[in-house]
Amino acid sequence: MRRLLLIAACLLIAAPALALDLPTRKAGLWEVKMEFQGHSNLPVQTMQQCTDAASDKLMTYNFAGSAQNNCSKQDISNAGGAIVIDSVCAFGGASSTSHAVVSGDFNSAYTVNVTSTREGGRPMPGAAPGGQTHMKIAAKWIGPCAAGQKPGDIVMSNGMTMNVLDIQKMGGAPKR
Q1: Which letter does DSSP use for residue 116 in this model?
Q2: Residue 164's CB: how many other CB atoms inside 10 A?
Q3: Among 27, 35, 92, 117, which is least packed, fewest CB within 10 Å?
Q4: Contacts for 2 with CB less than 8 Å, ≥ 6 apart
Q5: What is the rounded CA–CA span in Å between residue 131 and residue 96?
Q6: Residue 82 to residues 38, 45, 79, 86, 148: CA-CA distances in angstroms?
Q7: pLDDT interval class at 109 (50, 70, 90)
Q8: pLDDT score, position 132
């Protein structure tokens, strides 16, 4: 559970970069690896996500959280086929300045490279106050969802499974 909280905290750093309307990923099973560079206590995290158009949009929104409401700057551009996002956002008394580059193909594989600097707020586990953090997300389409999976299922590397659509129905996620 502690590892999941650390992942969630790191995703908050990247949330401004993910808050835009990215293209919808191809329906099916995606393997997503998150590498937190410079965080010695955070190993690479791997998860599998079963998606369709509705669950993919909701997953992107949930990982981004309320970033769009908390960002004073969010510049989005296209540079040579890559989506570049520069943002400044405030979360829980902290300010995060992020630069992200999204490249690849949302039908087969893509990467997101995020560099962030965070100031104020509670210290992030494994990160120096005011220091830069780097996160790389690498995703690839594996094929159809596995037997028994349904759109919205996320299977963490520790075997824990959750479904973003079920969480939304229970009132645990904002409706989109």
Answers
A1: E
A2: 24
A3: 92
A4: none
A5: 11
A6: 24, 24, 5, 13, 35
A7: very high
A8: 83
> What ranges in 24-175 are assigned the alpha helix state H?
53-64, 67-70, 164-169
Over range 112-127, report the average pLDDT. 80
Residue pointed to by tokens 């299977």: 155
Q: What is the pLDDT of residues 22-78, one digit of tens each?
A: 778 999 999 999 998 866 567 888 999 999 998 888 776 654 555 566 788 888 888
Q: How many CB atoms lie within 10 A of CB 123?
A: 10
DSSP annotation string for 76-110: EEEETTEEEEEEEEEETTEEEEEEEEEEEETTTEE
Of 84-93, 119-128, 157-166, the poorest mean pLDDT is in: 119-128
Tokens of 39: 């965080």
Amino acid (one-letter) located at 107: N
Q: Are 130 and 141 in contact (CB under 8 A)?
A: no
What global pTM score does this model have?
Answer: 0.77
